[in-house]
Amino acid sequence: MPQEVDQAKLVAALRGATDEVFSTMLGLEITPGEAYRQASKLEPANGVVALIGLTGKWVGTGSICCTGEFARKISGHLLMSEFGSIDQEVLDAIGEVANMIVGSFKNALEAEIGMLEMSIPVVVFGHNFTASSVHRADWIAVPFQCGPESMTVKACLAPQVEHHQRRATDLHAPLSQVIV
Fold it and tell me: Which residue from 140, 158, 136 is spatially nearest to 57, judged by alpha carbons?
């Protein structure tokens, strides 16, 4: 099993999945920006973030991040309605959009890294918060523009660590399975 997925394949899968969802499900045109690697320690953010866990022979997280205003626009296109504020319907719609994007991303990679399972989305809205993954892998981030609005789609993936290879920093590993 490879120790790292080719970054170009991750970027292509993120771009393809996001473009597919925006064009077919939302009727919105988006333009991808330059992909970049983001350290696993994230800076504080504002807006809406949806996170979906991935697990299998590889583990990680897929995420979409955008402003509250863009979240309302995305939700409006998905649900054919207008939203003046962030409410539960908007958060649920962003969770569904994240589910479609991360699901398509996952499907594009499974031939190379094996079957992956997805968690249900967790969606957060707020100001000056940090959302991160417990995995120490860097994120691959792809920014997108939709008119004046922007969003970032991210993923981090790392090979699954077998139970007998857990590190001393893994708090839930039984002592008999910890290596130093």
Answer: 158
Question: What residues contact residue 102 under an 8 Å CB cut-off, 6+ apart?
Answer: 17, 52, 54, 62, 63, 118, 155
Determine the Cα–Cα distance for residues 28 and 39; give it in Å rounded to an integer: 30
* Amino acid identity at 16: G
For 4, 24, 59, 159, 161, the CA distances from 165, given in Å and listed in that order, are: 18, 43, 15, 12, 6
- Please give the model's pTM, rounded to 2 decimal places: 0.84
**Range list of β-strands (E), 91-165:** 116-118, 122-129, 139-146, 149-159
Of residues 134, 108, 14, the one with CA closest to residue 63: 14
Q: Bridge-partner residues for 32, per DSSP? A: 144
Answer for the pair 62, 101: CB distance below 8 angstroms, yes or no: yes
Query: 135 near 39, Cβ under 8 Å?
Result: no
Residue 88, CA atoms < 13 Å, CB-side half-sphere = 0
Residues 112, 114, 119: CA angle, nearest 5 degrees: 120
> What's the rounded Cα separation, in Å, for the pair 176 and 123?
36
96-118 residue pLDDT tens: 999 999 999 999 999 889 999 99
